């Protein structure tokens, strides 16, 4: 008996161990959406709590959580802060993991009222689910009795959109880990709602810490640096015998007053941007913002002067002069007022930063960015106040060069925005054009230098300009054949009937069906890193290529996904010459070119 038991245990262990050797690379262990994001709700009179229990290795997108009511009204809920997630194609997004609870306050609800809740999430392994929608009944929430209390009743079941069928009965296989994938990240919500780069503080080309360096740089422009000795004297109130600690304290208070104004301005602009987040991502709006940034850059180049009206500047200056220097309160007020007075050198960079944070919709990012910007501008003032003018560099033409350099920095922002519209190839050409212009200007500016290290710098600048021009050379002198052959030629189908007809018309050839959506980052990775390689294209030369675009998640898209038993994207199906799907060949999740080529070689004829 003991020998039989041991034999059975060994057989079970060996079966489990060897089963993994025969797993198919494309097979999925992803769970259905209702298991990855278990949704529930609880109602109590005017309050309803929406709860998501998020499975380990999965996450929800903050921007994709949407509520709408039928025959009811509710206060706009305040979503908690999440964690930032970055990917190559869409930039930064705010996501939730583990558990999310959203309280919603109802203001009214008629009999039979409902609350429609929509969300979308993805897996860390590069698998994105279509948007999910559930309908929550609200009739019990405001059905008050005579004593003003809502009758007690058990939680109602959630009535939602049709769930997708379970996946095909294939052996599970862990999805490719992030380390096995190209330098991209997971999936992203639907494109119409995307900031195209997220705009969530989003996809922004530099972190808030750069604002500190920009502020320090602005301090050395010709409109700002010569003013520091004068401002220092006003802050000290004409006192020459103040202790170092007292002078440092007064200068710090002045800078904090200025920083307070900038911080408040940043938070207000970020809050306003949050209200128009979707509009800020429209191509026409992005083009308009780019035009504004270009005008701001031109003002830094000296083509025109941009500043507050002189009458308003005069009023603010008079208000500042009424404050008493040498006292903490007066110095703080002077700093706060000074934050409102924009010189020609600071107006353009400040406007650019404000437009930058308006896209983020993040109050803390907006306030923090402007605070660091003001702190950077104030650091030289603190040094001058404590140590005197001996620390200041001598004025000269170099200050105008600093101002011009910031014009190029501002020009980087429209390139960043337009890259979302014109695509990666043209975006690279725009970056190339900007880099060539900057390095060429810097090289020409440095031609009068005579010191050895400056000569070396000239060589570096010239080399950088020559390297940067490469994308423009390829565009001007190279035929665009490589770009034309970069992607597979798919035949689009959109319904079950169209798919059946396409399979029937394959005429005995094998078929590959790619399910694609704009909100699927891994689908874009397939296009960029896998389908574009010659080895994959060669392996598929005798295969009929079909593609379904389910970006809109329309009823016919849902029906097609249900018919094919697809949980989410990316998913690639293979059909034999008789039009029958080969479940063992199904690919779920991203595969690089080498792995996908091996998968194609191993598929059944």
Automatic annotation (TrEMBL):
Which positions make up the signal peptide?
1-19
Question: What's this chain's function?
Answer: Required to facilitate the formation of correct disulfide bonds in some periplasmic proteins and for the assembly of the periplasmic c-type cytochromes. Acts by transferring electrons from cytoplasmic thioredoxin to the periplasm. This transfer involves a cascade of disulfide bond formation and reduction steps.
UniProt KW keywords: Cell inner membrane, Cell membrane, Cytochrome c-type biogenesis, Disulfide bond, Electron transport, Membrane, NAD, Oxidoreductase, Redox-active center, Signal, Transmembrane, Transmembrane helix, Transport
By what name is this protein known? Thiol:disulfide interchange protein DsbD
What is the enzyme's class at the highest EC level?
Answer: oxidoreductase
Give the record's family classification. Answer: Belongs to the thioredoxin family. DsbD subfamily.
Identify the species of origin.
Raoultella ornithinolytica (Klebsiella ornithinolytica)
| Domain of life of the native organism | Bacteria
Coarse class of the protein's main subcellular location: membrane
* Biological process terms in GO annotation: cytochrome complex assembly
Q: What is the lineage of its organism?
A: Bacteria, Pseudomonadati, Pseudomonadota, Gammaproteobacteria, Enterobacterales
């Amino acid at each position: 008996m003991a020998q039989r038991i041991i034999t059975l245990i060994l057989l079970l262990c060996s079966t489990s161990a060897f089963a993994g050797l025969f797993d198919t690379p494309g097979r999925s262990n992803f769970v259905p959406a209702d298991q990855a994001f278990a949704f529930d709700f609880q109602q109590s009179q005017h309050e309803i709590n929406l709860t998501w229990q998020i499975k380990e290795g999965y996450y929800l997108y903050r921007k994709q959580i949407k509520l709408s009511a039928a025959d009811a009204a509710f206060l706009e809920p305040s979503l908690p802060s999440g964690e930032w997630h970055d990917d190559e194609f869409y930039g930064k997004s705010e996501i939730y993991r583990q558990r999310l609870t959203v309280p919603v306050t109802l203001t009214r609800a008629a009999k039979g009222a409902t609350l429609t809740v929509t969300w979308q999430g993805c897996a860390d392994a590069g698998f994105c689910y279509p948007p999910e929608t559930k309908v929550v009944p609200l009739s019990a929430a405001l059905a008050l009795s005579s004593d003003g209390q809502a009758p007690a009743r058990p939680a109602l079941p959630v009535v939602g959109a049709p769930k997708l069928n379970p996946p095909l009965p294939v052996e599970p296989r862990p999805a490719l880990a992030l380390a096995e994938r190209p330098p991209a990240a997971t999936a992203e919500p639907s494109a119409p709602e995307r900031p195209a780069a997220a705009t969530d503080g989003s996809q922004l080309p530099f972190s808030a810490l750069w604002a500190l360096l920009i502020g320090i740089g602005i301090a050395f422009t010709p409109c700002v640096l010569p003013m520091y000795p004068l401002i220092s004297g006003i802050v000290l109130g004409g006192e020459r015998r103040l202790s170092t600690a007292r002078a440092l304290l007064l200068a710090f208070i002045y800078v904090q007053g200025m920083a307070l104004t900038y911080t408040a301005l940043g938070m207000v602009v970020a809050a306003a941007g949050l209200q128009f987040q979707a509009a800020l991502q429209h191509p026409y709006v992005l083009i308009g913002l780019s035009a504004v940034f270009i005008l701001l850059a031109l003002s830094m180049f000296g083509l025109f002067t941009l500043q507050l009206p002189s009458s308003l500047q005069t009023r603010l200056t008079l208000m500042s002069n009424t404050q008493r220097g040498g006292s903490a309160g007066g110095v703080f007020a002077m700093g706060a007022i000074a934050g409102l007075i924009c010189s020609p050198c600071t107006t353009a960079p400040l406007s650019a930063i404000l437009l930058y944070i308006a896209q983020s919709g993040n109050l803390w990012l907006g306030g923090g960015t402007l605070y660091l910007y003001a702190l950077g501008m104030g650091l030289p003032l603190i040094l001058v106040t404590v140590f005197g003018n001996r620390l200041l560099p001598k004025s000269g033409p170099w200050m105008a060069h600093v101002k011009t350099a910031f014009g190029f920095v501002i020009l980087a922002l429209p390139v960043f925005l337009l890259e979302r519209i014109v695509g990666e190839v043209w975006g690279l050409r725009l970056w190339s054009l900007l880099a060539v212009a900057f390095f060429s200007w810097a090289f020409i500016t440095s031609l009068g230098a005579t010191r050895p290290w400056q000569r070396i710098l000239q060589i570096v600048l010239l080399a950088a300009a020559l390297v940067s021009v490469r994308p423009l050379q390829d565009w001007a002198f190279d035929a665009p054949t490589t770009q034309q052959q970069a992607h597979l030629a798919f035949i689009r189908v959109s319904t079950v009937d169209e798919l059946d007809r396409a399979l029937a018309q394959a005429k005995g050839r094998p078929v590959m069906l790619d399910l694609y959506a704009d909100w699927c980052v891994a689908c874009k990775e397939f296009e960029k890193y896998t389908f574009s390689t010659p080895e994959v294209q060669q392996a598929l030369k005798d295969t009929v290529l079909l593609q379904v675009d389910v970006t809109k998640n329309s009823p016919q898209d849902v029906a097609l996904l249900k018919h094919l038993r697809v949980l989410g994207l990316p998913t690639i199906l293979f059909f034999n010459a008789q039009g029958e799907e080969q479940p063992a060949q199904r690919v779920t999740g991203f595969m690089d070119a080498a792995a996908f080529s091996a998968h194609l070689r191993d598929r059944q004829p």
